[in-house]
Amino acid sequence: MQDDEARVDDRPRDFVASLEHGLVVLRSFDAANSSMSLSQVADRTGMTRAGARRYLLTLEHLGYLARNGRLFRLTPRVLGLGYAYLSALPFADLAQPLLEEASNLSGQTVALAVRDGTESVYTARAIPPRSLSVTVPVGRRLPLVSTSTGRAMLAFAPQATIEQVLSGSHLVPLTEKTTLDPDSLRRELELVRSRGYALVEQEVEVGVRSLAMPFFDGNQQVAGAVTALTSMSALTTKQLLADVLPLVRHITSELEVALKAGRTTA
């Protein structure tokens, strides 16, 4: 309750609460709740049925939701919001061919992620034409503290930011191997900072290992991270570091050069 009150106190005078509520309704839909009734939306958002109904009908009228009987679902129009962001990323055009080249050379999935609060969000990916390749959907959000991309970005943030993320993250066991102890995570971030890359094995998904490196903008601020993901049976850790890490490092170097030179805009 205190956190909620603090958040309300931080709102600017012209804050539009109804817009916030509409976005909350949109974000209540996910893979596990792709179609929901009015009651379900009200339960997931904490709204009254009357309030949820107004937002659902407004979003339906605007084309962001469609209704089939009692159930509402997102429409493709929602993708326009995400596409506007992705197309505006300063490194969007340059990153994709680099990811595809590394994926073809390594035979592994290679992706790019950026930080959003306490989460790492995949914004681009390249998957080799193999049925057993690890897949990562663009737009997938995962905890910074649990993923290789998240740790790669967080390790190079100011200590105050690290503590803020650790205290603000809802630590959940994604697998039996997920690290949940804050002190262990602090030590892991120190290790990432010292060696320049993050390595995560089966903490997000059973049978998957990944490594990631951050890349920096012209102000030496972390702009994102590049990761390579593979199944435990496809490559050993030694092979991943020997054969794939140099490819990931090449991508981050190219992105940094382009960001500093201002060559990444469309």
Task: Give a verbal description of the structure.
A hairpin with a 5-residue loop joins strand 8 (208-216) and strand 9. The chain is built from ten helices and nine strands. The protein has a six-stranded antiparallel sheet with strand order 6-5-4-9-8-7. A three-stranded antiparallel sheet has the order 1-3-2. By secondary structure, it is α+β, with helices and mostly antiparallel strands. It folds into two domains: 16-79, Arc Repressor Mutant, subunit A (Orthogonal Bundle), CATH 1.10.10.10; 89-261, GAF domain (Beta-Lactamase), CATH 3.30.450.
Keywords:
266 residues, alpha+beta, Arc Repressor Mutant, subunit A, Beta-Lactamase, 2 domains, six-stranded antiparallel sheet, three-stranded antiparallel sheet, 10 helices, 9 strands, disordered N terminus
Overall SS class: alpha+beta
Q: Please tell me how large the radius of gyration is.
A: 20 Å
Quote the CATH topology of the largest domain.
Beta-Lactamase
Number of helices: 10
CATH architecture of the largest domain: 2-Layer Sandwich
Q: What sort of overall outline do the alpha carbons produce when their principal axes are compared?
A: globular
Uncertain regions spanning at least 5 consecutive residues: 1-6
How are the secondary structure elements laid out?
Blueprint: H1 2-9, H2 17-27, E1 35-36, H3 38-45, H4 49-62, E2 65-68, E3 71-74, H5 79-88, H6 92-106, E4 109-116, E5 119-126, E6 141-143, H7 148-154, H8 159-168, H9 182-195, E7 198-201, E8 208-216, E9 222-231, H10 237-261
Antiparallel strand pairs: 1-3, 2-3, 4-5, 4-9, 5-6, 7-8, 8-9
Helix pairs in contact: 2-4, 3-4, 6-10
